[in-house]
Amino acid sequence: MRALLVIDVQNCIVDAGEFKEELSLMEETIKDFKAGDCPVIFMQHFDKETESPLHKDSAGSELHASLKEYADCVIEKGTPSSFFHTELADMLEKAGVDHLFITGFQTEFCCMFTAIAAFDRGYKVTFIENATGTPNTEETYDMPGLNVKDFVGTVLHWSNVIEVLDYEEYVDKYKAENVV
């Protein structure tokens, strides 16, 4: 069985950039998984530091209104990996999930760490590159010309263990009505 992870779609992250396209692709993927009766799991990151915009009591940590209505299942996390000290692995095992699809925010941290951790736990992993987003840019890393999403997608693709697709490739290969 396949499941979709929607990682860190939280106000302070989404509001830090222009993510209309990424949010739209995440929403279409969520709808597809729900139509196929496959689990959709939202991961919500919380920081312990009270001054952090991702502190549990802050508006910045809340799920963004654009996708919040789809969040029937939400798991809290405190590190980039969605597996570290969470109940995610147990939930996936109980549901019989063997294939995880990754979407969400913080492409180079939470999405990538989760994809690698999922592979390490024996899951087939599909990373939908253009259905991830990050407010970080080439200026953040002082690396002129860096496209963070493309770089992460390339690194994961070159690993030969994590499938990296764009949304259109996902539709061609996996869309619910195409999967038997």
TrEMBL record:
The entry's keywords: Hydrolase
InterPro entries noted in UniProt: Isochorismatase-like_dom, Isochorismatase-like_hydrls, Isochorismatase-like_sf
Domain of life: Bacteria
Alphabetical list of SUPFAM superfamilies matching this protein: Isochorismatase-like hydrolases
Domain (Isochorismatase-like) ranges: 3-147
Any one GO MF annotation of this record: hydrolase activity
Record's keyword annotation contains Hydrolase: yes
Family: Belongs to the isochorismatase family.
The protein's name in its UniProt record: Isochorismatase-like domain-containing protein
